[in-house]
What we know:
This protein is mostly helical. It has helices at residues 4-16, 27-34, 41-61.
Amino acid sequence: MFSSPQRSLLEAEQEEGDEDDNGEMGDDEINELLARGDQELPIFQAMDAQREEDAEAKWKAQGGTGPHPERLMTDAEVPEVYR
């Protein structure tokens, strides 16, 4: 199912048990899991950078000021029934 480097990364994540992480993976960690080789990692990183630039431009075009909101819902946005 997973190649050896991917399995190693997943096992390392599980062993860390970092309380601050809340099980969330960042773009870099996801990219490492998805990359089928070293040549794909820079492509994924460029895609992430472009996505961030696009989100920032869209936020400003809509009249937003300051940093654009997170991509995922914040705790305050989760409906009460799911808390």
